[in-house]
Amino acid sequence: MKYGFHPEAELEILEAAARYEAEVPGLGLEFGDEVERVIELLLDGPELGAQVDGDIRHFVLRRFPFSVIYVLVGALVYVLAVAHSSREPGYWASRFGGRRSGDR
Question: Residue 59 is inside which H or E element, if any?
Answer without folding.
Answer: strand 56-60
